[in-house]
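REVIEWER CHECKLIST
Item 1: Sequence provided? yes
Item 2: Single chain? yes
Item 3: Sequence as submitted:
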Amino acid sequence: MRSAIILAGGKSKRLGVDKAFVKLCNKELLRWCIEGLSNIEEIIISMKNNMYHDKILSWNNKVRIVYDSLDLESPLVGIYSSLPYINSKYVYIHPVDSPFIINEIVGYLFDNAEGFDAAIIKHNSFIEPLHAVYNKDNLSHAVNKAIYTDDLSVYGLAKELNVNYIDINEIKRFDRNLDFLININREEDLKNAGRIARYYQ
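Item 4: Structure as written out by the authors:
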C-alpha cells in the first residue's frame, strides 16, 4: 500500500483565502490534489480546522482528514499530526498549492526511496522536501526532533535523514516543463496555471 499526506492547512496571504479552496478553472486546489493522487490507496489531508470537513468528504469519502495538534506555523505541524494515521512504510508528502500531480513522478519517488529515509528532488543546491517520499518512522523521528528544538524549517529535515537525492533532470523525463513543482501563491501564479490546466483535467 502507498500513502500520501496533502498539506492543506495553509492560508494564502496574497490570495486572501485558505489555499486549499482557491479555485483553478472552477475547481479547488485541494480537489485537484485529491483527484491527482487517485492511484494512492491511503490519503490523509492535513487541515487546521474542521470548517470544510463535509465538503471534502463529498468529493471523496475515502480520504481521512486530520487536524493540527500543535498551534505552530510550519508545514511540519501537518506532517507531525498526520503521521500517526499512516499505515504504510513510506509516505508521499504534497503541498496543496501544487495542483498538477503526475503519477509517474510519484511512483518514481516511491521506488527510489526504498533503502533510504527519503527520496527528494534536487536542482542545483535547492531541494523540494514537500514533493518527496519518506520512510514514515524516520520522518517521524526527524519531525519530532525539529519541533522539540524549535527548528521549524522543512528544509532542515534532510539533514537528519539518509536521502536519495533525485536530480531534476530525472524528473524532466516525465515532466519537461516541471508543472509538477508549480506552486500557486499569487494571482499571477493562478493565471499561469490556468493556461496549462487543461492538460491535467
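Item 5: Key structural point noted by reviewer: The chain has a mean pLDDT of 93.
Item 6: Recommendation: ____
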